[in-house]
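ok new one. same drill as before - structure tokens go in, u give me an amino acid for every spot. 336 of them this time. try not to just spam alanines like last time pls lmao
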């Protein structure tokens, strides 16, 4: 197959940051995604309706200026003490999800959740409001490669304690998580990134260190990657795309920041991974159908065209180094 048209995809997990670089990051995402959910770990954080509404307006303006028709989706940051009224106000301000960052697990998460009981009131309100609980599933006190597995018990307790809460476990990175998701009820789903489907820890540090592949959760083994790919191509509605595209400017990367800026390359990486699995015909379900269904959204208008065409990934896009920078990819993606 040399070309493939799919319904315009969605990205249910993307970091657009704040400040001057935000507009460029938003445009790079809007170019290929019909909808995208902007993560709330900006500074200051999106922990209440006013901040959320201001940020949503700024993102919408950046998308409008990009010239691409795309719809941003809003997500607030769940913090202890936020209170139930703030949860309902965030929903009224357009939030479709609230993000649970274990305190200290990743970029800008020191104000996150120490344990689920610290946000019991807020989780009850989210369940009542029909909001999706989006979870960064890592225990920061566990060894780096075991953090996701170590957090599965916490997710299990949340799933059990809030029987109507819809949960999206973000950026799965290991085989145990795939098995856990399948064992939970159908109201629990998971996102998988293009980088976890394409690379392993050996790509990150098996040769020269490639900081552009350093993210949280850290890339894992070939067996873990195979389990993730199997889940993504399975056609199961429980697994869908969230890029976790997380740009950092070179100074931040040099200081060790975690995040892969995949927005410019994600669809090319996905096409290659699905082709490797002999499952290009399932790509549309993964990027354009299952996530929308989980979030109760209709199909995007518009079409994305994937072409088999070699292109070399630039050394830098929007000031950040994307994964596969300087390398040749086999698939190109543009709106049809
Ligand atoms: O690698 C990551 N970068 N993982 C996250 O969870 C957050 C993100 C960021 O905001 O930089
Ligand atoms: Zn993220």
């Amino acid at each position: 197959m040399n070309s493939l048209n799919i319904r315009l995809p969605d990205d249910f997990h993307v970091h657009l940051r704040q400040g001057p670089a935000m507009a460029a990051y938003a445009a790079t995402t809007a170019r290929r995604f019909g909808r995208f959910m902007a993560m709330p770990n900006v500074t200051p954080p999106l922990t209440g309706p006013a901040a959320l509404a201001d940020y949503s307006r700024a993102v919408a303006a950046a998308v409008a200026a990009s010239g691409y028709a795309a719809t941003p989706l809003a997500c607030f940051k769940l913090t202890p003490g936020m209170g139930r009224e703030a949860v309902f106000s965030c929903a009224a301000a357009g939030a479709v999800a609230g993000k649970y960052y274990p305190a200290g697990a990743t970029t800008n998460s020191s104000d996150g959740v120490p344990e689920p009981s610290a946000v019991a009131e807020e989780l009850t309100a989210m369940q009542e409001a029909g909001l999706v609980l989006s979870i960064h599933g890592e225990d920061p006190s566990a060894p780096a490669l075991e953090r996701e597995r170590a957090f599965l018990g916490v997710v299990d307790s949340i799933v059990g304690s809030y029987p109507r809460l819809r949960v999206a476990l973000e950026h799965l990175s290991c085989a145990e998580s795939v098995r856990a998701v399948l064992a939970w009820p159908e109201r629990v789903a998971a996102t998988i990134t293009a980088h976890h489907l394409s690379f392993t820890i050996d790509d990150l540090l098996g040769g020269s260190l490639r900081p552009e592949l350093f993210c949280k959760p850290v890339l894992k083994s070939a067996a873990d990657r195979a389990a993730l790919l199997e889940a993504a191509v399975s056609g199961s509605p429980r697994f869908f795309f969230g890029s976790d595209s997380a740009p950092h400017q070179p100074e931040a990367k040099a200081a060790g920041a975690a995040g892969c800026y995949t927005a410019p390359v994600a669809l090319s990486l996905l096409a290659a991974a699905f082709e490797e699995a002999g499952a290009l015909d399932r790509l549309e379900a993964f990027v354009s159908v299952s996530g929308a269904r989980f979030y109760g959204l209709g199909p995007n208008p518009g079409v994305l065209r994937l072409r088999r065409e070699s292109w070399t990934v630039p050394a830098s896009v929007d000031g950040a180094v994307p994964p596969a920078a300087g390398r040749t990819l086999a698939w190109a993606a543009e709106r049809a």
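Residues 24 and 327 are 22 Å apart (CA to CA). and btw DSSP finds twelve helices and eleven strands in the chain.
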